[in-house]
Amino acid sequence: MTLVGDRGQEFDYVNTATALQRAAKLQGNPSQLRPILEMVQQQLPFFKPLNLATASWSFARLQVRDRHMLHILGQSVLSQLD
Hints:
Layout: H1 2-7, H2 13-25, H3 34-43, H4 49-62, H5 67-81
Helix pairs in contact: 2-3, 2-4, 4-5
């Protein structure tokens, strides 16, 4: 999580999705997730289907309950289906 805080502004959408996945695998502390969630929200329009699947899995694993974030993730998934 330190890397995200130190270098997160340099992350592209792939780095952001990977950081979220790593946090989920390590079952990161939910209070430390805010920087990653903010990065996901900013970069979500650039996510490809694999990144969206990774984010969805990560949100489920981390039990993210942010309704707005889940809504925009769902909208991004639906837009990829068109």
